[in-house]
Amino acid sequence: MKILGNTLYVTSQDAYLALDGENVVIQREESETRRIPLHNLDGIVTFGYTGASPALMGACAERGVVLTFLTMHGRFLARVSGTEQGNVLLRKTQYRFSDDEAQSAGIARGFITGKLFNSRWIVERAARDYPLRLDKEKLSGVSASLADAIRSLPCAETLEDIRGIEGKAATQYFSVLDDMILQQKNDFFFRSRNRRPPMDNVNAMIFFVYTLLAHDTASALETVGLDPYVGFLHRDRPGRLSLALDLMEEFRSVLADRFVLTLINTKQVNGGGFIQKENGAVLMDDDTRKTILTAWQKKKQEQITHPMLGEKMEWGLVPYSQALLLARYLRGDMDVYPPFLWK
Amino acid sequence: MEYSEEEFLSIAGLQHFAFCRRQWALAYLEMQWNENLRTAEGHILHENAHDSFSAEKRGDRIISRGMAVFSRRLGVNGVCDIVEFHASPHGVPIFGREGKWLPVPVEYKRGAPKENDADRLQLCCQAMCLEEMLLCGEIPKAYLYYGETARRTAVPLDEALRGKVAAMLSEMHELSRRKYTPRVKPAKSCNACSLKGLCLPKLCRGGSAADYLKKRLEEFS
Question: Is A40:A8 a contact under the CB 8 Å cutoff?
């Protein structure tokens, strides 16, 4: 496997990133505050209107370090990408598959199988870990309907059918997300999904972590030579990382949602770290954002064994390994695309 | 038969192909190349050897670095680290120089001499290019220099080695025409391969993704 590098998160808005030799230099008010060798990095993510020098952008593109600009609240602004990695033939195959409804549905079914399988695992796991605190019947009900949805997927032939199954299952899954919050219930609750803007603390965190995950997934796809903008389940829309969103489906629950639940349940975040605007929109303060970023880095270092490859790797490399498997499937090395099915 | 420039393959690819056909295809057909320590070390070593604008003369030798060579017959091109021109009655006249000169390629390698033929094949191929470009007849021997031993070894360019170069290149051209990445039996040598993480040798063992899915989803069937 590829070596898991680090992601440099820059959260101060007055920072400027420059290149000096083989190092990224972070400058604030004309003076250098940090210096990090580029070869230690997989990616740089900046929050707020942090500036970067063209020389640094060029060096990142050349070395495959993905440089992403987000707003202070984690909304995507821009990414620097250089000449494509990999080869145009793989991308053309990807485009051909994307244009073909049957092929697209086949791959999309894989993504959604992964999503439902992993969501169900979260629910099952919670029911097993906290039998005395949770409404077991409610959870088993949701688990059973997720199992039904998984069973019905092989018969779903069109993307529309697959989206239908996925939609219903998602409603089921999110109906117990609040139950799985076991601490600080006054500050952290989940009623429904909302993100533009997030209207409660949990949605604010989930939205933020999904953005981090999308960044990692998009750069994983680029690393293996796939075009993150051309998807199978998510259709093309200018500026949308459709394939990254497709592939992310497998990891949302198992990597992002569960991560957010842990932060709340272990009290690594608290209600004081959130600000509610007059209209109800919720913002995270800088410290909470930093706490989440630090914990996210740590989460990505945790070791697991990949269920298909049987290889030990860090959680952070899971998007990469799935991207690689997808590329190998598109190239004809495999009979089906094997989604990440966690247990 | 002659190849067009469009079809030219990289001479450096020969050593990869000799090591593993799949590794060569991943690197040269799929353009997947992992920079790692070893390849980085290789770059540094080569930077010293390549300085295309220099041509030294030492006694009865001209030393030329970073010389681009090709062969239309073999359909390859590449760069020789060093080509020495030895003053020799068996040589050919070189433009701008007096006397007759015999080209002798010298290839620099990091590490120690290998057990397999990879480096010799690459070197022999360079010599075959030079023969074609200079119309100089067969170059009898060339040299490999290894960083670890800091010593050059003479490599006789015999018929067997030349035949192997030609056979390998024709197989490479065939795969290249089909843009096909072959599957290869995973071996011990996979552990030393810098592309292991991209190759996923396990997938070559014929493990089916459908079987994996079936097994994982057993409880839902």
Answer: no
Q: Which two tokens stand for residue A189?
A: 């609750």
pTM as predicted: 0.80
Q: How far apart are CA B102 and CA B49, in angstroms?
A: 20
Distance CA B163, CA A110 (A): 48
Rounded to a whole number of angstroms, the distance from the CA of B183 to the nearest CA of chain A is 8
Q: Is A139 within 8 Å of A127 (Cβ atoms)?
A: yes
Cα separation of A241 and A193, whole Å? 20
Contacts of B212 (CB under 8 A, 6+ apart): A307, A308, A338
Question: Under 8 Å CB-to-CB from B23, ≥6 apart: which residues?
Answer: B16, B17, B193, B195, B199
Give A138's DSSP letter: H
Task: Please report the residues numbered 130 through 149 in chain A whose beta carbons come closer than 8 angstroms to any beta carbon of chain B.
Answer: 147
- ipTM for the complex shown: 0.77
Give A235's DSSP letter: P
Whose structure tokens read 């992002």? A256
| DSSP, res B183 | -
**C-alpha A229, offset from chain centre:** 15
Q: Collect all residues of chain A within an 8 Å Cβ-Cβ radius of residue B217.
A: 113, 117, 150, 341
Whether the CB-CB separation of A165 and A152 falls below 8 Å is answered with: yes
List pLDDT tens digits, range B76-109. 999 999 999 999 988 899 888 888 999 999 998 8
Q: Which of B198, B208, B214 to mutate to test the interface with A (most CBs of A within 10 A)?
A: B198
A7/A30 Cα distance (integer angstroms): 24
